[in-house]
Amino acid sequence: MPKPRADMGNRVSTVLARQLGSQLLGFRETAGLNQTQAAQALSAQASKIAKMEHGWVPFRDPDVVALCSAYGVGSPDTVDALLRLAKLDRERRRAKGWWATSLTQGSLREYIAMEDVALRLRTWQLALIPGLFQTPEYMRALSVAAVSPDRIDEVERLVDVRVRRQRRLHGDNPLRVHAVIWEAALRQMIGGPQVMRQQLEHLCSLAEMPNIDVQVLPFRAGVHLCGGGPFNILSFVESGALDVVHMDGLRSTSWVEGAEESAAYTELFARTCATSLSPYDSLRVMESVAKGMNE
């Protein structure tokens, strides 16, 4: 399916809607129906099916149920998962969160809106502590290095945005996070020894929270499979087919969409976990590295 433009008139193509549209497209093709035939189930024109499959419009629950019936999708769990995704997308489109006015980068606004409704995050980091785990001092050190001198006033805004995102780690329904961090990220001197020691101590505290798991991939593991760069996997329902993968940068994000692509990253993450230290042993390593940070 061709990648859609970011907007079309008053319509907006969202990541969640494209994910749902991709699922329905796959079911339609398996059923051997074209868009005109599928549209008959909705008493609509083929153009409506095209807009839905490209994520241009929010999904109505009756439309999702009718299409699943027409495509022969008989599993109640599958239909329920699709309905939940449709609801999440409608909520995301209506959301007027703090990020709507705090950010100028549309792609980052899209990610934070999705992070706000996600159930779980799996993250792999090569050289940096995951953003949701960073202390303000660590963030400032990164931001100063990334922002040009004539835009240094943006640093505090970038720090504020990331601190606000960290609220998802707490509360009645906290985000579940599983982070795998290469040992290099623990030892890279960001902001100096004091900043790094405080950062690692903060990381150790987070690792003991019930909704957070941290594993360290040690140097001694040798060649690893995730050398291509850091990535995150957001999950919205318990079905892995509805995961969305994103590449998170300091100021922007890019998406990897589709069931096959997300499944490949899920497998890659699982294999990296298997070669990493256990959460208990990882905590001991993080504590040791923190103690070794000298002024």
From TrEMBL:
Which SUPFAM superfamilies does this UniProt record tie to the protein? lambda repressor-like DNA-binding domains
Q: What is an example of a Pfam family matching this protein? A: DUF5753
Transmembrane segments in this chain: where?
Answer: none
> Per the database record, which ranges form the DUF5753 domain?
108-287
List, alphabetically, the InterPro entries matched: DUF5753, Lambda_DNA-bd_dom_sf
Designated name of the protein = DUF5753 domain-containing protein
